Amino acid sequence: MFLQPNKTGDYDFTIIVPVYNEEDNMAAVEKRLADYLPTASRRACVLFVNDCSTDNSLALIKDICARNDHFYYISFVRNGGLSAALKAGIDYAWSPLVGYIDSDLQTAPEDFNLLLERADEAELVTGIRADRKDSGFKKLQSKIANGFRRSMTNDGVADTGCPLKVMHTDYAKRVPFFTGMHRFLPALIKLQNGRVIQMPVRHFPRVAGKSKYHLWNRLAGPFKDCFAYRWMRKRYINYDIDGANL
Question: Is residue 240 part of a domain?
């Protein structure tokens, strides 16, 4: 698939916002991101990725993009899941840096500036959710899943599920696509000999909409994906070019 450059190439930083049935959150998402963009430390835009929502999310996204500069969207024909939405956002981003935040607003867009401060030092700067505002059971699930993932990938990342990340777009575009990819972004960047920095960011309780995660897709799915990653790591190819005549 070859994608033509688009309006995101006019910016230094594209914020990808996957959306699936988040109509109750969209007004807050619009306000928080519209308030953040003028304060962003790099010229930034927003790219919504509608994952074939069955509620009114797409209509709301279109309205948001119509009345706000620097807001754009793409929309799926069929539901693909978070990894597909994130990968599509990366594929359609033409700015040097790309970021990711969930539409549940459990992390703060203002904290992108903390990550952007370190973006010249690493190919991925990822948040660590400080003082998480989730239930004890949800935090236990994440602790187990993160611990198993670290033991399998050796990525050294404390909280790969934190939905606040900044990546160099050229590295992000080379990330292999598979279901569950979003949980392995640090490991997949490191496969390319990229550097990863972790930074604490704020975390908030969900105030609207419903979580799309449950015991099965928080634990069982990632366990299986870890074995897939191990298989891929042994076969991943890196190469460097020191001359050409094209």
Answer: no
